[in-house]
Give the backbone structure.
Amino acid sequence: MTEEEKFWEWFKKNNSKYYFLNQILDEPKKEELLDDFLRHLHEYCNSLFFEIGGIPKEGQELIITAGGNKEYFAKAEQLVSKAPKIDEWEIKALKPPMGIDFVSRYEGVELNPNEIWFLPLDNEEDPKSLGLRICLENYDPKNEELYLNASYQLLDTILGERSAALDISYVEVDRLSQNPKKEGLIELSDLPQYIAWRKTKV
């Protein structure tokens, strides 16, 4: 039995425990289930993680993620390629793009994509690489690392794990100015289209 088969054999036997995961109010029981899942996943590859979501009776979604680490994208895809068909479960490799109709929360920092702008940053030594300056209304430079991590999480959700890791090479954060458009900034909602356009130019 391969490592992939071993993991999916375990999940086939235990998937019913996870179907109502997000409705479990008993936190110790929920943590125990999450830890058990991660332990079995890490027997396959300890650089992979997972997310479970969905609405009971409408099906559940299991995402095997590499946490944005492109070195392990292939491992996530290999595992999902061997996934069996399980009723009422949709199994995906890597977090998909989710658009901008959400509010992201990260350790007390709340970011609304509809209120954020970005400035593309070019690298003369590597014209194909794209950096971003993410400009936030509520940015506090004393907590730069916190806002930077929150911005990475935001990009991961908007673009999907693959694009966020492969299309963006550098990110910095700054305070949003009074006249962002006048200063050449672009609304964050336009970022997926900007990336697609840029790929046709470089």
Notes: The longest strand covers residues 130-136. The first helix runs from residue 3 to 19.
